[in-house]
Design brief:
By secondary structure, the chain is an all-alpha fold. It has two domains: 117 residues, no CATH class; 73 residues, no CATH class. Helix content is 55%, strand content 2%. It has a two-stranded antiparallel ribbon. α1 crosses α2, α2 packs across α5 and α8 crosses α9. About 15% of the residues have low confidence.
């Protein structure tokens, strides 16, 4: 069995990581988990956008089994649920709510919420999502900030290796082909195609899953990670 204990220090997770920890080496089970997670999140977001209640009221409703299969991200939980319900403006409110929260792939889910959701939908998990084991060092705020900045800077400038390099090579060829055909490519315009390329060529992340378009935009092809060809 795969040792997953190194994830014990993480307090929250994105959907792809959760699916990997739940399903481990079973790709079909991972896909099933992601479908159920996406639906649970969609319902939670729709309910919170369309019904006049606070986040605390929603938790009470869910506790009484009215919305047991919903999945609330940290972004949703932190959003002030005080929207006024007006039938003729409901779509506008939902649209504003969705834009403020972001896509499903970018959500972060706390351990307690994942554990509650697993029990509600009856899924078995390879990882328990028990309470986070915290490792705290007695450092001064200034030193803590300096270390954090150093780690963040190091993560940004590390050269790509493995699967990321393969994606960047393929993206370079795709970019040049689009330019030759008279197009004006951007990173945002190619990430969907590159995500499909990853699935077609079985390119997997270090977590053993196909990278999404949003993940490629943020961690592989955007910012300092990749320089598009001229």
């Amino acid at each position: 069995m795969t040792d997953l204990s190194h994830w014990d220090s993480f307090e929250d997770f994105d959907p792809n990581r959760i699916a990997f920890l739940i399903a481990s080496a079973d790709p079909e089970y991972r896909d099933e988990v992601l479908v159920l997670m996406r639906e649970g999140y969609r319902i939670a977001r729709t309910v919170l956008a369309g019904i006049p209640m606070t986040a605390e009221q929603f938790r009470i409703w869910r506790k009484h089994k009215l919305f047991p299969h919903t999945l609330v991200s940290k972004q949703l939980d932190g959003y002030p649920m005080l929207l006024q319900y007006e039938p003729d403006r409901n779509w506008e409110l939902v649209k504003r709510f969705r834009e403020s929260i972001g896509d499903f792939e970018n959500q972060r889910f706390a351990r307690t919420e994942i554990r509650r959701w697993l029990g509600a939908v009856g899924l078995k998990s390879s990882y328990t999502f028990d309470s986070q084991q915290k490792y705290v060092l007695p450092v001064s705020p200034s030193l803590e900030e300096e270390v954090s900045d150093s780690i963040e800077e190091s993560a940004r400038v590390q050269p790509p290796t493995g699967w990321k390099m393969e994606v960047q090579k393929a993206a370079t060829l795709h970019w040049k082909d689009m330019r030759t055909a008279g197009g004006n490519p951007t990173v945002s315009s190619i990430v969907d195609s590159m995500a499909k390329w990853c699935r077609a060529n079985n390119v997997l992340t270090d977590g053993g899953i196909n990278p999404s378009a949003n993940y490629l935009r943020t961690h592989v092809l955007g910012g300092r990670h990749w320089m598009p060809p001229r």
